[in-house]
Task: inverse folding
C-alpha cells in the first residue's frame, strides 16, 4: 500500500514540475515575442484590408468607365437612328407614288434591323469587357487571399 501511495506522489510531483516548467517558460522574452507576432499579424491584416479596399475602388472605377462608354455608345446610336428615321420620313413624304414610299420604308426597316442586331452584339461585347475589367482587381485580391490562407495551413 505504501508503494501505491509513493507512485501517486511521484506522478503528481512530475506533473506539477511539468506545469511549473511550462509556466516558467512564459517570461518577459516570450511575452515580447508573442506580442511582436501579434502586432505583425494585425499589421498584415490591416495592410491586406487596405489593398482589398483599393481593389474594390479600382473595380468600381472600371465599372463606371465601362458604363460611361456604353452610355455614350448608346446615345450616339440612338441619335443616328433618330436622324435616319427623320431622313426616311422626309424621303417617303416626298415620294411620287405609294409604291416608292413603301420601298423607302421597307429599305429603312431592313437597314434598321441590321443596325439594331449589330448594336446588340456591340453592346454585349462592351458589357463583357466591362464585367471582365471590373472583376479583374477583385480576382487578383481573391487569389492573394487564397495564397495567404494556404500559407497558414499546417
Result:
Amino acid at each position: 500500500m505504501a508503494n501505491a501511495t509513493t507512485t501517486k506522489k511521484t506522478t503528481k510531483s512530475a506533473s506539477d514540475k511539468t506545469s511549473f516548467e511550462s509556466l516558467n517558460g512564459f517570461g518577459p522574452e516570450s511575452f515580447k515575442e508573442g506580442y511582436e507576432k501579434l502586432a505583425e499579424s494585425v499589421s498584415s491584416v490591416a495592410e491586406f484590408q487596405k489593398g482589398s479596399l483599393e481593389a474594390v475602388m479600382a473595380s468600381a472605377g472600371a465599372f463606371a468607365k465601362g458604363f460611361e462608354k456604353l452610355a455614350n455608345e448608346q446615345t450616339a446610336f440612338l441619335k443616328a437612328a433618330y436622324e435616319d428615321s427623320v431622313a426616311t420620313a422626309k424621303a417617303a413624304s416626298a415620294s411620287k407614288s405609294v409604291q416608292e414610299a413603301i420601298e423607302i420604308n421597307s429599305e429603312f426597316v431592313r437597314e434598321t434591323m441590321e443596325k439594331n442586331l449589330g448594336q446588340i452584339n456591340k453592346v454585349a461585347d462592351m458589357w463583357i469587357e466591362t464585367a471582365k475589367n471590373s472583376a479583374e482587381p477583385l480576382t487578383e485580391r481573391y487569389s492573394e487571399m487564397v495564397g495567404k490562407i494556404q500559407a497558414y495551413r499546417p
In short: The mean pLDDT is 84.
